[in-house]
Amino acid sequence: MSHPLDRAIALRSDGENTFQGQIPTDYANFIGPFGGVLAAVMLNAPCLSADRLGDPLSLTVNFGGPVGEEPFAVVARPTRTNRSSQHWQIELHQNGEIPVTASAIFALRRDTWADLERRFPDVPPAAEAPSLASEHLPRWVSNYEMRVVRGGMGFLAQAPEASDSSETVLWIRDNPPRALDFPALAALADNFFPRVFVRRPQFVPVGTVSLTTYFHADGAELERQGDRFLLGRAWGNRFHKGYHDQSAELWSESGQLLASTHQLVYFRE
Q1: Residue 99, preceding bond cis, omega within 30 degrees?
Q2: What is the edge-to-edge ordering of all strands in the sheet holding 243-251?
Q3: Could you report the per-residue pLDDT of 104-151, keeping only the tens digit for each?
Q4: What is the dihedral of CA 61, 64, 65, 68, to 10 degrees?
């Protein structure tokens, strides 16, 4: 039996650059599917294309409206291909509308000088961190095993007090465990609840407007990761007039930065 994520992001080719898909309710959020699984769908289209060049470098997803439970089409077109890089435009079509758009960059990576300025957080191993209970949380949360090291990840019992910091550090992986690939990493990058829920642990209407993920690892490094836990760290910078940004990092257990992400979130009082 296939993994729930594979079923959710499955796309069937329907001619050149066009794919058909449908996301099951396993990944339901408050309105429509979890944004991370939508990001994974949008990335999966060029990943499956015969025109693909190299591995993903970046993905930007813009959420213009909700996606329903019915089937949809994803149109992914390479707009420019150079010797080592490739640019894509991606659209999700449903019921005569385009609720989600995306752009992606793929590239052939070359061996060069390398360094890592960011430092792996000082944290206990995943086995020593308590699991986040998914009861009373959106359905998609149950598809992930989250072990919180510090910082809230909810607006109910997990974060009962207001905080002057929106930082969360946690271990995370698919549930059940699944070998890591680029669509799965794109989904994991959106696993951090809106930071406004951490600063002010009360429910308000929220929604991601735009999400950009940068992939620092190549396919071989993701393959070595297998289905082990990733360490995630997320924080916000400014909450102002109905919007806030938030940034996040995803690390391997061995201390390699696999992806970083930045998104803009709408919230309403």
Answers
A1: no
A2: 12-13, 18-21, 72-81, 85-94, 97-107, 55-63, 206-215, 257-267, 243-251, 230-240, 168-174, 144-150
A3: 999 999 999 999 999 999 999 999 999 988 878 889 999 999 999 998
A4: -40
Q: Hey, is 153 helix, strand or coil?
A: coil
Domains of the chain in start order, with CATH, are: 4-109+124-267 (2.40.160.210)
pLDDT digits (tens, 9 = 90+) for 24-50: 999 999 889 999 999 999 999 999 999
Beta strands in the chain, from DSSP E residues, in sequence order: 12-13, 18-21, 55-63, 72-81, 85-94, 97-107, 144-150, 168-174, 206-215, 230-240, 243-251, 257-267
What is the rounded CA–CA span in Å between residue 118 and residue 155?
Answer: 29
Of 172, 167, 166, 124, the C-alpha closest to 147 is 172
Whether residue 100 contacts residue 38, with contact meaning beta carbons closer than 8 Å, is answered with yes
